[in-house]
From TrEMBL:
Subcellular location: Membrane
Predominant subcellular localization, coarse grouping: membrane
Originating species: Alkalicella caledoniensis
SMART domains according to UniProt: CorC_HlyC (SM01091)
Protein name: HlyC/CorC family transporter
Sequence ranges assigned to domain CNNM transmembrane in this UniProt record: 1-189
Membrane topology: Multi-pass membrane protein
Gene Ontology terms for molecular function: flavin adenine dinucleotide binding
Protein family according to the UniProt entry: Belongs to the UPF0053 family.
Length: 417
């Protein structure tokens, strides 16, 4: 056998090997997320820091791999064509093209990439030393190609974003959902994590107890009246106002009333008042939570742009945003959504749409209303009467109870439920 022929076959085999090496390296390294790399480094996985160094400049890394892969593939094709022509003459060009296409697909693309994808962490650590040497060797060519590519991209109005975030909020939410679907996270854990995201975005006006539902007492009220409010409403804290609800001057705690030492006739409401914290409607609740926690305030009065009382909010309301409703409204018993069986639910009119969606799996949304009562009023186009019903998709809403100003309770029937 011609020694030259054997040598060319050996070189062709080496080129096919490097084709597979470059393909496997690309898949293994580029499939690793920054989070995974950081975890590997923190766990002190041997070779992880080198992988991290390579991926600190992904454009250079990818450029070097692609240049190397193209060089060996072109070289292998040229060598195979030369061999085929020696054996088959002019027909060898077509034969070489067919054979090399098959060989490159099997040994240079599909097989190495499949193996690398299945073992990206181990594979990336194994190939990184060699890839680092190749990257340094090809760096002059890669720099020229990177500059040229950037120029062409800008020429067509594109932009290269080199400051992309490690992970976006939406990606993290998707990871949480996938973790739940695969059994890694329990449903309670999933809900809590999503609540944390919503906690960072929500405003005070979205979760406060609105002005019309504030149960408060006048500073001139006697002990008997105050006691009756506590017994009737089952609250642990009651706001106290002077003359008008727009002038809340503090709040009473139930233990200051029930366990006070003086006689009933000597009870002085002002001397038992606790300080109240004031905030505004459009403040982010994460900021309010930090302020109330730092200064140890349990209740805050929400004021509007004119200084009037818009609502109140408790530290418990803020905690509920993360951990769910503990049934405490200023410390009282409260249930927003009640399952009455057979796909029927009785919902408080002040329940927020996102809470209904979260609990019942619905997809209600509105640009103008935040509560289920306001949403239904908007759908009707007028203020509904008790007993009126409306169907939205597969959801039937029946108004159960109204006051002069709002829907107090509504029944939801999920059709087919």
């Amino acid at each position: 056998m011609n020694p030259n022929f054997v040598l060319r076959i050996a070189i062709l085999s080496v080129l096919l090997f490097f084709s597979g090496f470059f393909s496997a390296s690309e898949t293994a390294l580029m499939s690793l997320s920054k989070i995974k790399i950081r975890y590997m480094i923190e766990e002190k996985v041997k070779g992880a820091e080198l992988v991290g160094r390579l991926l600190d400049n992904p454009s250079n890394l990818l450029g070097a791999i692609l240049v190397g892969n193209n060089v060996v593939n072109i070289g292998a094709s040229a060598l195979a064509t030369s061999l085929a022509i020696d054996i088959y003459g002019n027909r060898g060009v077509g034969i070489a093209t067919g054979i090399m296409t098959l060989l490159v697909l099997i040994f240079g693309e599909i097989t190495p990439k499949s193996l690398a994808a299945a073992n990206s962490e181990k594979m990336s650590i194994k190939v990184s030393p060699a890839v680092l040497l190749i990257t340094k060797f090809l760096s002059p060519i890669v720099v020229i190609l990177t500059v040229t590519t950037g120029f062409v991209i800008r020429l067509f109005g594109g932009k290269i974003d080199t400051q992309q975030p490690l992970i976006t909020e939406e990606e993290l939410k998707t990871m949480v959902d996938v973790g739940h679907e695969e059994g890694v996270l329990a449903i309670e854990e999933r809900k809590m994590i999503h609540n944390v995201f919503r906690f960072g975005d929500s405003l005070v006006r979205e979760i406060m107890i609105p002005r019309m539902d504030i149960e408060a007492v006048d500073v001139s009220s006697d002990f008997k009246d105050i006691l009756e409010v506590f017994r009737k409403e089952l609250y642990t804290r009651i706001p106290v106002y002077e003359n008008t609800i727009d002038n809340i001057i503090g709040f009473l705690h139930i233990k200051d009333v029930f366990f006070q030492d003086k006689k009933v006739e000597q009870f002085d409401i002002k001397s038992n008042l606790r300080k109240t914290f004031y905030t505004f409607e459009n403040k982010r609740i994460v900021e309010l939570f930090e302020e109330m926690r730092k200064d140890r305030f349990q209740l805050a009065v929400v004021v509007d742009e004119y200084g009037g009382t818009s609502g109140i909010i408790t530290i418990q309301d803020l905690v509920d945003e993360i951990f769910g409703d503990f049934g405490d409204e200023y410390g009282g018993v409260y249930n927003d959504i009640e399952n009455v069986g057979e796909g029927n639910y009785v919902i408080d009119g002040l329940t927020r749409l996102n809470q209904v969606n979260e609990v019942l799996g619905t997809n209600l949304s509105s640009e103008h209303f935040e509560t289920i009562g306001g949403y239904i009023t908007g759908v009707f186009g007028h203020f509904p009467q008790e007993g009126e019903a409306v169907v939205i998709n597969d959801l039937k809403f029946i108004v159960l109870e109204v006051t002069s100003t709002r829907i107090k309770r509504v029944k939801l029937k999920i059709e087919g439920g």
